[in-house]
Every structure is written in C-alpha cells, then in structure tokens.
Amino acid sequence: MRKNILLICSILILLACKSGVPKDVIAPEKMKDILINIHVVDGYLMTYTSLDSSRKSGSVYYNSIYKHFGVDSAQYARSLSYYNQNPEKLSAIYQEVTTDLDKILKEEEKLDKQNVISQ
C-alpha cells in the first residue's frame, strides 16, 4: 500500500513540474526567446520607409527566427493563440521579454556612448 501511495505521489510531482502547456505549444522559455527576437526585428522594420520592402524583408527575418528555434510559423501562431487565451502565462512571459529587451537596449546605449567617445 505504501508503495502505491509513493508511486502516485511521484507521478503527481512529475506532472506538476511540467510547463503546463500542450505538446504542440512552444514552451514558455523558448517562446520568450522567440518573442524577444521578433520584437527586435519589428523595431528594425519600423525604420523602413517602404511598407512593401518591410513586408518582404520581414518574412525573411521571421522565417530565420523560426528556423533558428526549430519551429514554423503555424506552430508559432498556435502558440501565440494559446498564450493569448491564457493571459497569466502570457503576462509572465512578457515580463521576462520586457526585462531582457531593456537589458539589450541598455547594452546598445552603452556601446553607442563608447563609440561616440572613441571618435
């Protein structure tokens, strides 16, 4: 009887440790990394003056992000839809995205200052 209870407790603990997302949804940590890259590309594309050029270049950049992380646009879209339907999970991901993007911005500003000083 004790073995059965121990086995059931072990299974419950293992199930509780999962990320809590369906198999076909990108895990939160990986989704965070993808979103960071997508937002960096979005910012870059905002500098384009031509909407047509932005669309053409954008698809190349986005596809390279998907390839880098081993996902496709359909899986990304399904995952984004899942997280939109689970705002607590999306909010947690975006808190990390925002923190990481702020770090990137501060590093870039620091490099810009160093470049101005060295010129």
Can you tell me about this structure?
The protein has one domain. With 119 residues, the chain is mainly α. It has five helices and no strands. Helix 2 runs antiparallel to helix 3 and helix 2 crosses helix 5.
Task: Name the descriptors.
82% helix, 0% strand, DUF4296 domain-containing protein, DUF4296, extended, mainly alpha, 119 residues
Brief sketch in words of this structure:
82% of the residues lie in helices and 0% in strands. It is built from 5 helices and no strands.
Structural class, from secondary structure content? mainly alpha
**Percent of residues in β-strands:** under 5%
Largest sheet: none
Total beta-strand segments: 0
Mean of residue pLDDT? Answer: 87
Secondary structure elements and pairings:
Blueprint: H1 2-16, H2 28-45, H3 51-69, H4 73-85, H5 87-118
Helix pairs in contact: 2-3, 2-5
